[in-house]
Write a structure and sequence with these properties.
Blueprint: H1 6-16, H2 21-28, H3 32-40, H4 51-60, H5 65-69, H6 83-92, H7 96-103, H8 115-130
Length: 139
């Protein structure tokens, strides 16, 4: 992507933030020597950090693991929100994430049309996820 290695990206971001190896180590909970090895890519050792380590370092640097790895993340465009869904969402005080999830729902190319349809879909998902409405239980 940009020709840099992950170690170079870590070092560049750390220097942009003006934090030392020690500070990054403490913030990420990763050994200072290990971060140094990543940044300097000691050719004597094959340093391959775990996903968890990359995530910790990225979080401590205020960036994403994808950025450190030099990968682009495909963003899913925000779906169009039908008026009936927006009305249902406002009445139920749903989060924007819930609204977007519902807006992506379709069956054989068709989407729910009325506020009652959206409520039925939302309640069905909520009950399924929360385990309510199963045999022998009362909703």
């Amino acid at each position: 992507m940009d020709g840099q290695t992950m170690g170079q990206r870590i070092k560049q971001r750390r220097e942009e933030l003006q934090i030392s190896l020690t500070q990054l180590s403490e913030k990420a909970g990763v050994a200072k020597g290990y971060i140094w090895e990543l940044e300097n890519e000691n050719s004597d050792k094959d340093v391959r950090p775990s996903a968890d380590t990359v995530f910790k370092i990225a979080e401590a640097l205020g960036t994403s693991a994808a950025d450190l790895l030099g990968k682009k993340i495909q963003q899913t465009p925000t779906p169009d929100i039908p008026d009936t869904l927006r009305q249902f969402a406002e009445a139920q005080d749903l989060t924007e994430a819930d609204v977007e999830m519902l807006a992506r729902i379709e069956f054989r190319g068709e989407k729910p049309e009325t506020k009652d349809d959206w409520q039925y879909i939302y309640e069905s998902i909520r009950r399924t996820i929360l385990g309510k409405g199963k045999k022998g239980e009362q909703a």
